[in-house]
């Protein structure tokens, strides 16, 4: 895909000038000032409009690598959590309600999911194969997943979304995400392996070794982002990459969540150079690959609360900070007025 232009630099400069002219010491609101200017640049207007239509889209899938002992929970938790989100009782639902965001979930690769609306499964591709043994996706499965994410983004933008968040759901998904970060940044398993859902030391060492096995299996094919995503990713991760590229190509900014979303953001920025400028990191998770991916993208997290829930939950929390930044730019008086 072709590169995209960054958010409007003239509007960003206008927002900074407005902030400097307000009745406060210049720079006194710290990062709130730059965040408000970023939102203004993305919207193309100063001051920016409040974020009243924020949408979290959770991409769910099973990962066969979980059977290798890289997760503290069984794969059966994934469909149960899909039902939890649909019932409005998952962690991301509670946090989203607190900031006025909406949550939807799509099954891209859950092996067995019963009793859900057809809309949840309309983009189903299939579970990801074990990445240390074989490629997670075929080329056709990859393209279907990327196209699904783009369609989901297009529908959200058409419906009025101002800000989008990709959430993740799937036992074992920190392993392919860590593999993608390692392959993207030329790192090894020990650099990116984290405890995920709560691994002990022995399981963590097993995870690092498995990551090295997967990276060695793929070899130089990982240089190409599409081949990397097919070999080491999953349908849910690929769909989220397509969602991110679809959002930024349509001029809608993204808040990036933890490890999985940060890995997806790295791929999105490779597929659509310049995508990173339409992103802000909502939080930094406890997974080591998260910080590495965000540093690679030049994204400084808004929050660092030691969270590792996934689902888009950390990114959702940062929406309150973004709206506070917007309120300050819209409502604080000019020094010349007092």
UniProtKB/TrEMBL annotation:
Its EC number is 2.4.2.21. The keyword Transferase applies. The keyword Hydrolase does not apply. One of its GO terms (molecular function) is nicotinate-nucleotide-dimethylbenzimidazole phosphoribosyltransferase activity. GO terms for biological process: cobalamin biosynthetic process. InterPro entries: Nict_dMeBzImd_PRibTrfase, Nict_dMeBzImd_PRibTrfase_bact, Nict_dMeBzImd_PRibTrfase_N, Nict_dMeBzImd_PRibTrfase_sf. It holds the Pfam family DBI_PRT. Pathway: Nucleoside biosynthesis; alpha-ribazole biosynthesis; alpha-ribazole from 5,6-dimethylbenzimidazole: step 1/2. It is an enzyme of class 2 (transferase). Keywords: Cobalamin biosynthesis, Glycosyltransferase, Transferase. It catalyses: 5,6-dimethylbenzimidazole + nicotinate beta-D-ribonucleotide = alpha-ribazole 5'-phosphate + nicotinate + H(+). It comes from the Bacteria. Belongs to the CobT family. Catalyzes the synthesis of alpha-ribazole-5'-phosphate from nicotinate mononucleotide (NAMN) and 5,6-dimethylbenzimidazole (DMB). This is Nicotinate-nucleotide--dimethylbenzimidazole phosphoribosyltransferase. It comes from Propioniciclava sinopodophylli.
